[in-house]
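Q: I'm writing a short explainer about N-acetylglucosamine-6-phosphate deacetylase for a general audience and would like to include a description of its predicted shape. Could you first generate the structure from this sequence?
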Amino acid sequence: MSTTARAYVGARIHDGEQLHSAHGLLVDEEGAFDILPEQALPPGCVVETLEGGLITPGFVDLQVNGGGGVMFNDDQSVATLKTIADAHARSGTYAILPTLITDTPDRTRAAINAVEEAIAADVQGIVGLHLEGPHLSVARKGAHDPSLIRPMSDADLRLVLEAAERLPNVMITVAPENTTGAQISKLAEAGVVVSLGHTDADAATCHAAFDAGARCVTHLFNAMSQMGNREPGLVGATLARDDVHAGLIADGIHVHPTSMRVALAAKAGIFLVTDAMATAGSEIDRFHLNGREVFRAERRLTLADGTLAGADLEIPRALEVMTEQVGDTLEAAVARTTSIPASVLRQPGGLGHLSGRGQTALYFRNGWSSPQVLARAAR
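A: Of course. Here's the predicted structure. Afterward I'll give you a sentence or two in plain language.
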């Protein structure tokens, strides 16, 4: 064994699915990761002993609208994508789906082009595209501009199918009211992750969309039909399905901790998203979304009328809320930011796991603040 191999011991290690004690993270002479019991570490490797803490994979976030003071909706360019990715990397997120909020066909096309160019240029962290709209319900529009919301046309469908041919991962959030089952099926067959959200549809309609190929739900509980005693809505339909994943904004503002606890008890497949805006990784206190000003105060982002407009959130804060307020286990909570969201992707490429190549190992010494990049596995 070459002395260039290095092992990190002394901290608990989360491999993306399970939590390990008395193990070491081995970075071998070819730059690949492995996790082994301490007594099984190969002789001759350099051992570095850490002072407790936790090692995790880099986080995976499937809903990122902005960061570093910029919004993807404002400028669909490689430079903007790099700024956003760099801002989220500082808090430990090393794989994102940059998200275009409901906008024009021209900006949708520009977003696809920009993501394709960023991936070709090897911009770290950009792994695909999330189109949140514009085929949503005006009744559940949230902060989306209602003048831009529309049914999915044949041209819209072709554009997303083209994106699926050009990009490794494409997610689209739709409302069943503004898409057809046939459109959802075509998208799913092409490898697009179809996610239901911003919808006022009843449970039967949502189940039909799931049966057609939708397999995810965007920010569970928010901007959707709620669960009632006679009509379960999208919330109830989601919690009843074992074949559907759901994103969750765990800032303690968008969803009450008790509601989150109920959802976790009801189903597997829940992962965390930030729904982050330009404020992530920056000190700005306001920005614009489709020409409307968004204000930042007390960890809330709101339009002038008080409507929530994305989240002032980064993954470490979401993990803190999940473990301290919701009561999720450390093992489960970290999986919700690593292997579970990665499993939603068409081409996960090993993301969300501490094994093989091309991943990032983070080290949290005390709590969830200031993650240190411990090692990066060679590709």
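A: For your explainer, you could say: The first strand starts at residue 6 and ends at 9.
Q: Perfect, that's easy to follow.
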